[in-house]
Write a structure and sequence with these properties.
The chain is mostly helical. The chain is 59% helix and 12% strand. The protein is built from six helices and three strands. A three-stranded antiparallel β-sheet has the order 1-3-2. A hairpin with a 2-residue loop joins strand 2 and strand 3 (80-85). The radius of gyration is 19 Å and the shape is globular.
Length: 120
């Protein structure tokens, strides 16, 4: 490993490849929304489909990809599968990124109370 800026060593290529794959999976807004929802608590596919706004088969496919990547896991409860986060560190990154972008969006757009009465 080579020393980078600030004295931190560059991670091995395998680690960077794995990180790129995880970021690639989260590049889908639906999968990102699923991770966001699962960070709030466990859920089955029906509830996730309602919350994310996708069709059950599509949400199931997204969950399968997230499971294969080791980002979520599931367990059986009766006839349903309950999904939960298996990568809390990834959730931390997702929450940080989405939270920062939401804060920026709030700052960039005027509050709704100021828009009322302006004819907008």
């Amino acid at each position: 490993m080579a020393a980078g800026v600030g004295g931190l060593e560059d991670p091995p290529a395998e680690v960077l490849t794995e990180a790129a794959a995880a970021f690639g999976l989260l590049a889908s807004s639906a999968r990102l929304h699923i991770m966001w929802a699962l960070a709030q608590g466990e859920s089955d596919v029906t509830h996730l489909a309602d919350r994310v706004g996708g069709a059950l088969p599509a949400i199931s496919q997204h969950l399968s990809k997230l499971k294969l990547a080791g980002l979520v896991r599931s367990r059986r409860e009766g006839r349903r599968q309950v999904y939960f986060v298996d990568a809390p560190d990834v959730v931390t990154v997702v929450q940080l990124m989405v939270g920062q972008l939401a804060a920026r969006a709030e700052e960039a757009s005027p509050p709704m109370s100021r828009l009322r009465g302006t004819g907008v």
